Amino acid sequence: MNKIKIVRPEESQPARAIWYDRKKYVTVNFIVHKPKDVQVDIQPDKMILYCKNDTDDVFYNVLPFYENVQINDSRERVYDRSIHILLRKLKPDYSWPHLQKDEARPSWISVDFDNWRDWENEVEDGKEEFDMYADMIKEMTTKNKGEAPDMDDLDSD
C-alpha cells in the first residue's frame, strides 16, 4: 500500500482537535470548516493531517499517540465541519489517560467530555447489578412462598 508522504507546509496552523477514549477505539475529531484537499497518514505510532478550509487556510497536525494503533483498522471520514479519525487500539480494554505520549498537552488538543465515558468500570458495575438481581430472584423463590393459591375458579365447566 503506497501512501503519499505528507510534507509540512511552510505556512500552516494546527487544526483544533477534540478526542475521547473507548474500549477498542480512540476517536479524534479535527474541527475544520469545509475541509478540502484532506490528506491523512495514520502510522502505528502517530498520525499526520494536512488540509485546507474554504478560505484556503492550511492546517497541518502531527499527533504522536500514547500507544500504538492498528493502521489497517483505523479510518478517517470528512464531514462539512470536521474530520473524524477512528483509531483502533493495539491493546483493547486499556485506557489512554491522554492522547499523546508526551504528557504536556498542546493547546489545540482538548478532551470531548460530551462523549467521554468511564468505560473501565462498566463491566464491574453491570456484574454487580446482575448479582443483586440474581440474589433478589433467588430470595423470592426460596422465601416468602406461602401457601399455593387455590385455582379452582379457573375451571371452564
Automatic annotation (TrEMBL):
What GO cellular-component annotations does this UniProt entry give? cytosol; nucleus
Q: In the record, what terms sit under GO molecular function?
A: Hsp90 protein binding; protein-folding chaperone binding
**TM stretches of this protein:** none
What is the superkingdom listed in this entry's lineage? Eukaryota
Q: Which GO terms describe its biological process?
A: chaperone-mediated protein complex assembly; protein folding
Q: Which residues form the CS domain?
A: 12-100
InterPro entries under this entry?
Answer: CS_dom, HSP20-like_chaperone, p23-like
Q: Which Pfam families match?
A: CS
Family that this chain belongs to: Belongs to the p23/wos2 family.
What's the protein called, per UniProt? CS domain-containing protein
Organism of origin is Pogonophryne albipinna
